[in-house]
Specification:
The chain is an alpha/beta fold. It is about 40% helix and about 10% strand. The N and C termini lie far apart (about 50 Å).
Length: about 230
């Protein structure tokens, strides 16, 4: 029997990353999920990530521990208020304070090390260039640049014919399209948490950028929103 392909999937516990896990499974990959405890204020997402990994039967799930609060500079890693009730125009035309400096570069670098260790050639990340809240490290040109670097920086990249690929299956999708595909693949979105400022019970605020985009996605997809909101 031909062994299944291996893939590293970055799993935050949110809607997008859960969908990507399901998509990688549908593409016949053995999924090695990677989450991060990085000092984020919404650490409840790690419980969601663990539950999703179990529900979607990933091959292996690891959580890397690092502390980006050392640097701060973001509402997710510092004592900065999370913006609420911003307009779509505001989301599209500035970089919000919820942007964590260099986060995707750090995460993808860890994923690259994990991939070399297990012999995976594909790294999946749920970045999105449409409903992306202005984050510079979610753009296609950033992903292309990181992939080029990955194939210069690793043993596998310079000694083997099969290159490392950064897979971004959601990059050109709206939140509505993502929610629709995930629902078709059997993702239980009630297990996910996307909120930047949830309460201690794991309920979403309903007013941060991520909550607003999530609500919009379910609404436009004509799907029931299973999220528990406190606000």
């Amino acid at each position: 029997m031909t062994p299944k392909k291996k893939a590293i999937v970055l799993l935050s516990g949110g809607l997008d990353s859960a969908t990507v896990v399901a998509m990688a499974h549908a593409d016949k990959y053995d999924v090695y999920a990677l989450s991060f405890s990085y000092g984020q204020r919404h650490s409840i997402e790690l419980k969601a990530a663990a539950a999703i990994a179990e529900a979607l039967s990933v091959k292996e799930h690891k959580t890397a521990v690092l502390d980006l609060r050392l640097f701060g500079g973001s509402a997710l890693t510092d004592d900065i208020d999370v913006p609420k009730d911003r307009s779509e125009d505001d989301m599209e035309h500035d970089i919000p304070v919820t942007y964590v400096p260099a986060r995707n570069t750090i995460f993808l670098s860890f994923a690259l090390a994990y991939a070399e260790t297990v012999g995976a050639k594909d790294i999946f990340i749920g970045v999105n260039a449409l409903d992306y809240s202005g984050y510079p490290d979610c753009r296609p040109e950033y992903i292309a640049s990181f992939e080029a670097m990955a194939n210069l920086a690793t043993k596998a990249g310079v000694t083997e014919d099969d290159r490392v690929r950064i897979r971004t299956p959601l990059i050109d999708m709206t939140k509505a399209e993502i929610a629709t595909i995930g629902t078709e693949l059997g993702v239980d979105y009630s297990m996910t948490i996307s909120c930047y400022d949830p309460n201690g019970e794991g309920e979403a605020c309903g007013h941060c950028d991520s909550c607003l985009l999530r609500k919009k996605g379910f609404r436009e997809a004509d799907l029931a929103d299973p999220t528990r909101y406190f606000g």
